TrEMBL record:
It comes from the Eukaryota. SUPFAM superfamilies: Epsilon subunit of mitochondrial F1F0-ATP synthase (SSF48690). This is Mitochondrial ATP synthase epsilon chain domain-containing protein. One of its GO terms (molecular function) is proton-transporting ATP synthase activity, rotational mechanism. The lineage of its organism: Eukaryota, Fungi, Dikarya, Ascomycota, Pezizomycotina.
Amino acid sequence: MTAAWKAAGLTYNRFLAISARAIRRSLKEDKRIAAERRGEMDLRFARWQNGKQGEAKDLGKANAAAMAEHAS
């Protein structure tokens, strides 16, 4: 038996991000604002090819773009 997130074609990290966003949106206004601030990401990543670092990208923006692409 496979997990529902795996059967839906999601990675576990993507499943957690979607779940966290749904929970944050269900909170009352004051608690929701505080929770959304904690959910912000300031991480950056870069791909390495042939021993050279590529362009550094913001992880939050890259994740949002990937989620939008997946939703389409």
